[in-house]
Write a structure and sequence with these properties.
- This protein is an alpha+beta fold and about 400 residues long.
- Helix content is about 45%, strand content about 15%.
- It contains eleven helices and twelve strands.
- The strands form three sheets. Strands 3, 4, 5, 6, 7, 8, 9 and 10 form an eight-stranded mixed sheet that branches.
- It is globular.
- Bound molecules: flavin-adenine dinucleotide (FAD).
- The site of flavin-adenine dinucleotide has 19 residues, from strand 3, strand 5 and helix 11.
């Protein structure tokens, strides 16, 4: 059966989320606490409390940990609504990297780790980090992981350098990927470790200056300098980090698509309003075919993106891993939404590149979406390999 209808209660919740974001969160878009390195923690906490009051905080979390245990399709509908402002997902605690980290931890953390590292993030009191990418090491190809963990039978000592680590500054829950060196006690290879951000040996070198500013704390260069962690800090099993990263990435790349779809819709709504009211050469610019075609192309892309997302989500809700489909969705949606937002800038003329409207911020923030959780070319590479293999 093919059914694209949205149940009435889900549609009502979608509208409530959208209204919450419009009424309570959009005003923060001009708050000075939205810095060049993203919203600061004070702003985040204020917005989190607003979402908590509306019972819209971390609604995706498993029921036993205080959430609603949303299906992937339900997430698609509600995250799209939250994305109307790039701050909406931050307020509702469904933004990257926390959202993907919470998903991963809910799947593989043991009960003690869940209480210590996951629950405070779900409750909105703490933030989390996923530290994988390295200068000259792990990136598009995570097999190049260079950060090393040495096990002496009791403790791990980790050394290495990471960059582009979102939210590192101030995050309490850290998931670190390091290659466990050969040892007589445990299987070697890429391994995930859990620890607190203020553990001695974690050194934040600097926050990078990037063109986006929608993630709390920005993106950091981090050194691990003889970071000593106990045996219990292993997340899951040693040697399995790349498998776990895949577990995290397939849904996480889709949730990026959902949130950015909401942001692109916002840009489109602003462009449509402008096209209706701004005149040139004797009529509203929207009545010039050159403009109406740009808006029509946007509408077509938004619709196609939504269907692509929903299909991959539906497959995951049926128990499929949907790795191939999530790769298709991530590469397609990130490229198309970027084009949509670019056309919105064009429709707005000169003010399109100014902060007179939020379109300029959406455009800059969205650019990175074509890179993280797999650059478009890497997804196409995976899709191509899949085709040739089968
Ligand atoms: C805003 C932002 C936030 C991020 N947050 C985090 C985070 O919190 N934690 C974390 O660990 N990482 C994070 N990253 C890093 C991100 O995951 C990497 O940027 C991404 O995996 C690509 O790796 P790289 O930057 O090293 O690019 P490289 O590996 O250097 O690749 C450069 C380019 O080469 C091309 N390329 C590579 N492989 C292929 C191929 N097989 N076929 C064709 N072309 C190819 C692609 O065009 C790619 O963009 C973040 C990145 C950004 C931009």
């Amino acid at each position: 059966m093919i059914d694209f209808s949205i149940p009435a209660d889900l549609a009502a919740e979608r509208d409530r989320v959208r209204q919450f974001v419009i009424d309570k969160i959009v005003p923060f878009e001009r708050d000075p606490r939205l810095t060049a390195h993203g919203p600061n923690d004070e702003l985040r906490q204020e917005m989190v409390e607003l979402a908590r009051a509306e019972k819209l905080l971390t609604i995706q979390a498993p029921v036993e940990l205080g959430g609603r245990g949303l299906t992937h399709v339900e997430q698609a509908v509600l995250y799209e609504a939250s994305g109307w402002s790039t701050l909406g997902p931050v307020a509702m605690n469904c933004a990257a990297p926390d959202e993907g980290n919470m998903f991963l931890l809910s799947k593989i953390a043991n009960p003690e780790q869940t209480q210590r590292f996951l629950q405070p993030v779900i409750d909105g009191h703490q933030r989390s980090v996923f530290a994988m990418t390295e200068p000259g090491g792990a990136g598009s190809d995570p097999n190049q992981l260079a950060t090393e963990a040495v096990f002496d039978g009791e403790n791990f000592t980790i050394n290495g350098r990471k960059w582009l680590i979102t939210g590192a500054d101030g995050a309490k829950t850290w998931i670190i990927m390091a290659r466990l060196a050969a040892n007589p006690h445990l299987p070697e290879g890429p391994t995930l470790f859990l620890c607190e951000g203020d553990t001695e040996g974690i050194v934040i070198d600097r926050i990078m200056n990037t063109m986006d500013r929608n993630y709390v704390g920005g993106h950091a260069v981090v050194n691990f300098e003889n970071l000593v962690l106990p045996r219990e800090s292993v997340l899951g099993e040693t040697g399995q980090a790349l498998r776990y990263a895949q577990l995290r990435l397939a849904p996480a790349r889709l949730t990026h698509c959902m949130r950015w779809l909401g942001a692109a819709e916002r840009a489109q709504s602003i462009a449509v309003d402008y096209a209706k009211t701004r005149t040139a050469f004797g009529k509203p610019i929207g009545e010039h075919q050159g403009v109406s075609f740009m808006l029509a192309d946007n509408e077509i892309a938004l619709h196609q993106c939504r269907l692509t997302i929903w299909h991959a989500c539906w497959l995951m809700d049926q128990g499929h891993k949907a790795r191939h489909e999530s790769s298709i969705a991530k590469s397609y949606v990130s490229e198309e939404l970027f084009k949509v937002t670019d056309r919105c800038v064009q429709v707005l003329g000169g003010i399109g590149i100014s902060d007179e409207t939020v379109v300029e911020m959406i455009f800059r923030d969205m650019r990175a979406f074509r890179l993280y959780d797999g650059p478009t070319e890497v997804h196409k590479y995976a899709i191509g390999r899949h085709l040739l293999r089968d």
